[in-house]
Amino acid sequence: MNKLYIEGNKKLNGHVVISGSKNAALPILFMTILATEEIEIHNIPQVTDIKIAIKLLKYLGAKIKNKNKILYIDTSSMNIYNPPYHLTKKIRASIWMLSPLVTRFGKAKIFFPGGCDIGCRPIDLHLKGLVSLGVKIIKKDNYIIALADRPLQGKHIYIEKISVGATVTIMSAATLAKGLTIIENAAQEPEIVDVAKFLNTLGANITGAGSNKIYITGVSKLYGGYHKIIPDRIETGTFLIAAAISKGFIICNKTEPKYLTNVLKKLSESGANIKVGKNWIKLDMQKKMPKAVNISTSPYPGFPTDMQPQFTLLNSIAQGKSIIVENIFENRFVYTNELIRMGAKIKIKKNYIVCTGTSKLSSNNLFCHDLRGSATLILAGCIANGITVVNNIHHFKRGYESFMKKLNKLGANIKYI
Ligand code: EPZ
């Protein structure tokens, strides 16, 4: 069942409930390694990447109960510091085990992480940050050994390039370090704020998360606690695009509008009527075709790279011409070849594409290569003429909870083959 059959020409309308954020839940799960009492985490998205993270924690010795999107995690009996290759290589997020493992055990052995093929995705900034705090790093062919006298030593660190991953690594390592750590040029994503909030709940002393300067005063121990994962802003954006490309309307519930300021701006610019409430967003295209919008990705609060493929689809069927610039990852246009096979008029340049809207896409036999690209191709199938078959669908399951079920409820007709 690694293929989808999608009937086209659908209008996607209605209500959808947004799940917890995958990219907040993943680092938070690995940060539980730092504590030695039971932690209760709510709103865990039921997606493959999370299942792999749970398997990794269990392998290391954590006791985990999973009930209705709530995880009860107790890592007190954890005694293994070298997660296995077959799980580590499946998710990029596995790099976030390195810092809590070396902090807790004074040593860690970890294979280079896997994940979506959207660029070369180095981890040098994670490692540099750890070295600044006193960790010795030994790099081998396909794994890293990290060694440290505990506790680590707080430091003033300037991250050369804004990186979500490196900010999380350094922030978590500094939590139990001695003295003050200041992270400058930190990533400001809502997921970073959620990780800091989680660590503070357990007893950490972190301020400034959400700005470009984070202060962490080391504490001697982290305790148990309760945390609820924030809503997934990229899932929200993906459903807003679903309605926008089908001239429909949608209400996304249990979301956080302020995380999507730039995405909502672009949707308004494309002609959508948008209203927001405390935890909902309503988009209504009033049966009109979208207008083309230019996009340029950048770190938060800029336009998210994780919404770039979905907006390319919108621009493919919009009125007018657009330019979409990708500034974060160097290989994030692979999915455009599939859209081109559906009739999209896209010219791929170096780090940007030029898109000329066409009134209709036509069905085809499509292949997914990464998470956000796969969601985009599924949406394209919903509005194209005819029956689209989408292959390699394991990609979308990594990050979208009940994606088919939610889309079918909005009026799509998607089945497994
Ligand atoms: C996170 O990846 C997300 N992944 C990505 O989500 C997201 O696209 C990305 O942040 C940017 O928002 C998870 O949260 C699991 P980065 P991450 O470190 O941490 C370079 C999705 O679809 N860099 O902010 O890997 C890097 O190559 C995904 O859900 C270094 O040079 O992203 C990139 O150009 C995919 N050295 C830039 O920084 C490093 O050591 C930003 O990457 C680390 C990163």
Count up the helices: 14
Q: Distance N terminus to C terminus? A: 6 Å
Number of E-state strands? 23
Give the CATH topology of the largest domain. UDP-n-acetylglucosamine1-carboxyvinyl-transferase, Chain
CATH-defined superfamily of the largest domain? Enolpyruvate transferase domain
Please indicate the percent range of residues in DSSP E strands (runs of 2 or more).
15-25%
CATH architecture annotation name of the largest domain: Alpha-beta prism
CATH class of the largest domain: Alpha Beta
Amount of helix: 25-40%
- What structural category arises from helix and sheet content? alpha+beta
Q: Ions, cofactors, ligands: which are bound?
A: ligand EPZ
Keywords: Cell cycle, Cell division, Cell shape, Cell wall biogenesis/degradation, Cytoplasm, Peptidoglycan synthesis, Pyruvate, Transferase
Modified residues (2-(S-cysteinyl)pyruvic acid O-phosphothioketal): 116
Binding site for UDP-N-acetyl-alpha-D-glucosamine: 92, 121-125, 306, 328
GO molecular function, one term: UDP-N-acetylglucosamine 1-carboxyvinyltransferase activity
